[in-house]
Amino acid sequence: MASKAQCAFCFDVLVAHFEGRSSLSLVSFERAESAAISELVNSSSSSVSSVDTASFTKVAAANHKTHGSYPLFVTWNVVVRGQPRLRGCIGTFEAQPLERGLRTYAQTAAFDDTRFNPILAKELSSLECGVSLLMDFEEASGPLDWEWGVHGIRISFHVSARRYSATYLPDVPPEHFDSKEQTLESLVHKAGYSGASWRTLSIKLVRYKGSTTSLSYAEYVAMKAII
């Protein structure tokens, strides 16, 4: 499960880069997250039921997956007047040891997304970090064989012996498009193909699910203060 601790760790990787230091460990932020949850439960003990308390504990335990390996994406947004705008997003479909993968793609998304200029230190306070852990990959029976708002999609196709591919994470279609068809048209263009409609292409589509969460810079600062 994607967690706030993972997002905070990505923030610290970025901040450490600008400060010329080593970042704190992922487990440090996981412990801080657990401490914050425990404090919330304890301070609300008179109004939080045993079921709610168990739920908090379960979430905290599920979030601590430091030793697992996952396909993952790190997304940086800049928040302007309360609205997030994409600032960089890069990831991998190859399972990565979690801390190493988050460290790598926190930096790659911040500095090497060719759609954007590298993130600057002065932007930190306006940033929001998102982490997506990917799972349940399935080959679809066709381009429309996926569930809106549930699946991310990865397409690939060949034209004149050249292979094209692109992906949208599960939250992208509902946020930016009105239909599966519009999503596919955009994804074909994202892959770098500017020819005919997606309907004329022999598209192979893989659908997948993801666990995604995000964290603001202010939340990162608050979590780091607990460590």
UniProtKB/TrEMBL annotation:
Among InterPro entries, the record links this protein to: AMMECR1 (IPR023473), AMMECR1_dom_sf (IPR036071), AMMECR1_domain (IPR002733), AMMECR1_N (IPR027485)
Pfam families, from UniProt? AMMECR1
Where the record annotates domain AMMECR1, the positions are: 35-224
Task: Return the protein name.
Answer: AMMECR1 domain-containing protein
